[in-house]
Amino acid sequence: RSALPGAPAIAPAALPTAPAAVPRRAAAPSANLWKHDPLPDAAPVPDSFVKSTAATKDMQSRFEAMVRAAQDSICAQIEELDGEGKFQQDAWTRPGGGGGISRVLNNGKVFEKAGVNVSVVYGTMPPDAARAATERRQAHGDAGGNVPFFACGVSSVMHPHNPHAPTVHFNYRYFETEGGAWWFGGGTDLTPSYLYEEDAKHFHGTLKNVCDKHDPEYYPKFKKWCDEYFMIKHRGETRGIGGIFFDDLNDKSPDEILPFSTECANAFIDAYAPIIRKRKDQPFTEKEKQWQQVRRGRYVEFNLVYDRGTVFGLKTGGRIESILMSLPLTARWEYDFHPEEGSPEHDLIKATTNAREWL
């Protein structure tokens, strides 16, 4: 078993004997191999994808307004942070009802791939899709029958070039069914390749501050939920070092929960951007880049096997490009690889196999 991915026992020519630090983008293998035409700007984006906007203060319209504002703000700030890359917009409609706005940044200066999607979809979902949409694993409707539904959300994943800069994901959503059931869900979580405790403390501390403003029980409950949800069961390890995650949230009025979801979405930049500013120019080696690729492989495994949003989107005939936007451009699988005990890579594994309290 080799100490690092790509070492001589696995790939004799993969690494130099003493790898030197490489420039920030030197190891992004797909950056110059494939030329992507810019995404075409779609037809003018409608003011709302909600079926009827006559009642402008209903929760469907209010939540859509929130996620579209979050998308605009976050994309603008990520472009500023990247310094070169620009989000390309792709507006789309769903044949079964609704539509969305996908924005993707590819091969920027800081981010290899970043996406921020808004979707507003409605129609009818089969029971297995309804079970995928909720933590309770049961359809919110007539048992055995299709479930009329409305779902609105904003979701994002960002994969930096630098292996010392962590990947991040967030998603905030609102569901309704025709039978009168409704609930909020979402969360924000961090997936580093290399563990920096000060980054973990900052990230979790920012999310805790938001939670504490609304309910002192939220952060410990949602932090534990996040650790459990992002478990890659066949690996016995979590995807990253967590954050917060919640689902089926309807124990308070919608007017109380909407501000919580809004503040969580708005706190994303405060939680993530300071970490990226600190790590984006940090020197790294080819071996460290390859370890990042191995960890991205874990990311792919979770998203395709366990992620509830991915399963829901596939089972309801969702837009494939938007559903799979979360996947990195590149990933790596090494046969029977285990990092050397005591190495920085092993430190990360310890943090993903035994959930830690960061605060």
Amino-to-carboxy terminus distance = 35 Å
What is the number of helices? 10
- Largest sheet, if any? 7 strands, antiparallel
Q: Write out the strand line-up for the largest beta sheet, numbering strands in chain order.
A: 2-3-4-5-6-7-10
Helix content: 25-40%
Secondary-structure element string: EHEEEHEEEHHEEEHHEHHHH
Overall 3D form: globular
Tell me how many strands there are: 11
Mean pLDDT across all residues, rounded? 85
CA radius of gyration is 20 Å
Short synopsis of the structure:
The protein has 359 residues and is α+β, with helices and mostly antiparallel strands.
Structural features, described:
- There is one protein chain.
- With 359 residues, this protein is of the alpha+beta class.
- Helix content is 36%, strand content 23%.
- The strands form three sheets. A seven-stranded antiparallel sheet has the order 2-3-4-5-6-7-10. Strands 1-11 form a two-stranded antiparallel ribbon. A two-stranded antiparallel sheet has the order 8-9.
- Helix 1 runs parallel beside helix 6 and helix 3 (197-214) runs antiparallel to helix 6.
